[in-house]
Amino acid sequence: MSIHADISPRIILSIASLYNDVNRIFMEYIDNSLDSAGAFYNEKTRRYSRPIEIALEIHGDNYRNGKVVIADNCFGITNFTKVVQSIGNSDKRADFTTNGQFGYGIYSFMASCLKLEVTSKTEKENAQYLPIEKHQFDTDKQEDVSFPNPKTVKKFEFTSGTKIVLSGFDKHSWKQININELQNEVEKHFEILLSRKNLTIKLIRVNSQLLQDKEEYVCNPFDYDQYEGDEYKDDLRELSFVKGKKNPIVTKVPLDKPIHIFIRVTKGREINKRPVFISKGRRIAEVKDIKAFKSVHKSELWDHPNVTGYIDLAGFLDPTIARNDFINTPNSKAVFNTLLEIEPLILDVVRNVNKESEEKHYQQLEDRLNQALSRLARLDAMNYRTDYLSGNDINLQKGGTGQDIEDDRGAKDRGGFTDDATSDNMVGENEGTGKGTGGNSGDIPGGTDGDSASNKEANNPFEDTGFKGGEKKKSGFNIRIDEREPDIDSVTNEPMRSNIYGSEIRIFRQHPDFQGRVDVLRRGAPKITQRLITYLAGEITVHYKDKFHTKKGTQPEYSKSHFGDLVSFIYQFESMLQDLSGKNLSDLSN
After folding, report:
1. Cβ pair 477, 447 in contact under 8 A
2. CA separation (Å) from 583 to 354, 516, 528, 537, 588?
3. Is 116 helix (H, G, I), strand (E, B) or coil?
4. What domains, with CATH codes, occur in the chain?
5. Helix, strand, or coil (residue 386)
6. 3-state DSSP call for residue 181?
7. What one-character-per-residue DSSP string does 187-199 give?
8. How remote is the C-alpha of 191 from its chain's centroid?
9. pLDDT value at residue 555
10. For the CA atoms of the chain, what is the radius of gyration?
11. DSSP letter string over 457-472?
């Protein structure tokens, strides 16, 4: 005597709980519409033979009266009975052009609401209507679950198509519904399909009982070309599968349809759209979130904010029921093993772009350093003049901003200097620019409104009076963060942390003391630490003060007061850079 399996209908409710995001539920019904539209699609022309329109409408003010309607003008449902009965045994499973495989999608509504009503029509048949309610599955026995025969409906909006109405939302799920987030989800989930011709997916929010009062959004495919960057493209026509650890055997797996890899690494701009796996035109999950993909570069590569794109599996792998991962099979192992083999090629692209971006960001840091030194040098020059005229021993005191000197208030308070005195040819007035593109780098802020003072030929210890191309060179220090290997000290034979070339201070980025003060995040993006700020302030101060006293002819034998002055300058410099502490280097371009 055979034993029959007795499966409780409650398992449907349990599976529904996998959909913890109401947007993923809506994706199921839009997905079904796209499957139904497949009858009109031409793969060669990438065009539908007639205009296909799929619309999702949100009605109601709250979860009590709210409803969501998904309607299409596609082929329609040919067999209502089979749709209801074919749970786990979908006819679409073997069809490459369609995405369904379990026949479960129509029941996903149970994760968020109580009732689904479906009306559908084919071109040759009348429209039929069938309601399905969640409570029908709250029973132990299969035979207790039954549905009425579908009702014939005389009027339907389209020649053929399907209309789904969801209602009875729970409070939490209704609050999750946001049309902007929904648009983002649709554009991510179906980004490949949205590029097909003659297809429109619309989202509509009806704000009142008046149908004219509504918001409408059209979903568009993602435009990768709007972001400058380097690309990695590949069409995999064969996969490799490794079996065995002690004596590994590599098996080659040919593919009927190529797996297409498209990765773009944007230059200097974070777009936070991570690469995804796509199956049959639908997003499954971000590459970094696939547990069975054991990459050691998930942070540096697949979770990098400048890396985007997709891996189109062409239906080679089977997704899980919730369609957010893949079933563990020999095929999935072959795909992931092959991706691990080509990762170094993609990483080369990422690292090259990272290097270019990092150079740009370091140039922006150079500009910030030049601006800070320019402001501080003016304050230092004023203290020098006060000390020189009055004979007092005055060190830097004003809390590090130098703003009192820039807007002349401090000058008047400390000795009655006029406006002309502060803008006169004083020490350190004109600091040079870095390699970067900062708008005010190298100029002296002329006041609190950020205007820049014009450069003048000053009595400046860092002045370069040479001419080039008929123009006078700008006087002042120029700070460079040099990527080259450090110079070697001729006395100690040790690598130098920094060096000075004429009026240019070069701080060597490759020196271990510099590298040890940069917090490199897992994805390789440098972060500015407090220790790095102190380090930069110290290195720059040493060269600045040496030039200052040498040029002024005041280089004394060092005493405690002079060491105090040196340290005070470092503290002032450090204070001016405090807003950089904890920032990613890339934040300087924002």
Report:
1. no
2. 17, 16, 6, 17, 8
3. strand
4. 10-221 (3.30.565.10), 226-351 (3.30.230), 354-589 (no CATH)
5. helix
6. helix
7. HHHTTTGGGSEEE
8. 17
9. 58
10. 34
11. ----TT----EETTEE
Q: What is the pTM of this model?
A: 0.65
C-beta atoms surrounding 147 within 10 Å: 14
Tell me the C-alpha to C-alpha distance, in Å, between residue 551 and each of 185, 500, 560.
Answer: 64, 15, 21
Answer yes or no: are the C-beta atoms of 536 and 569 closer than 8 Å: no
> Cα separations (Å) of 228 from 7, 224, 305, 347?
54, 9, 14, 18
Do 228 and 68 contact (CB within 8 A), yes or no? no
Confidence at 5, pLDDT banded by 50, 70, 90: low
Q: What three-state secondary structure class fits 585?
A: helix
CA angle (388, 390, 394) in 5-degree steps: 70
Helix (H, G, I), strand (E, B) or coil at 47: strand
Judge whether 286 and 273 are in contact, CB under 8 Å: no
Alpha carbon distance 75, 91 (integer Å):
15
pLDDT by residue (tens digit) across 260-309?
A: 999 999 886 778 899 999 999 999 999 999 999 999 988 889 998 889 99
User: Do the beta carbons of residue 324 and residue 285 sit within 8 Å?
Assistant: yes
